[in-house]
């Protein structure tokens, strides 16, 4: 009976040591995951900043053709008005 108890204690010690190694391995994996996640968060932050810059550049580019169109239309209206004014002054 004493031998059986000693054998059981030895088995329990072996199981505890195995479980401690398993838990240690899990902690290592959690730490690796945490480091990986921190890297991902940093990359996402950088991506968000870059996306903001791209959005601002697109807005700037979108407003440029609008200004050109306004200038073109203003010039066209002025030319037509000038031509009509010259035509009517020349006729009378």
Description of the molecule:
This protein is mainly alpha-helical and 92 residues long. The chain is 98% helix and 0% strand. The chain has 1 helix and no strands. The radius of gyration is 40 Å and the shape is rod-shaped. The model has no long low-confidence stretch (mean pLDDT 88).
Distance between the termini: 134 Å
Total helices: the number is 1
Order of helices and strands: H
| Largest beta-sheet details | none
Mean pLDDT: 88
Which regions contain 5 or more consecutive residues with pLDDT less than 50? none
Question: Can I get a quick summary?
Answer:
The protein is built from 1 helix and no strands. It has one helix at residues 2-91. It starts with a helix and ends with a helix.
Describe how the helices and strands are arranged.
Layout: H1 2-91
Q: Features of this protein?
A:
92 residues, mainly alpha, rod-shaped, 0% strand
């Amino acid at each position: 009976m004493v031998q059986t108890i000693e054998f059981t204690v030895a088995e329990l010690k072996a199981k505890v040591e195995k479980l401690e190694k398993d838990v240690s391995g899990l902690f290592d994996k959690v730490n690796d995951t945490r480091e990986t996640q921190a890297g991902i968060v940093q990359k996402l932050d950088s991506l968000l900043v870059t996306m903001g810059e791209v959005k601002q550049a697109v807005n700037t580019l979108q407003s440029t053709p609008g200004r050109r169109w306004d200038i073109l239309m203003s010039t066209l209206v002025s030319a037509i008005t000038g031509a009509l004014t010259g035509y009517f002054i020349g006729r009378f």
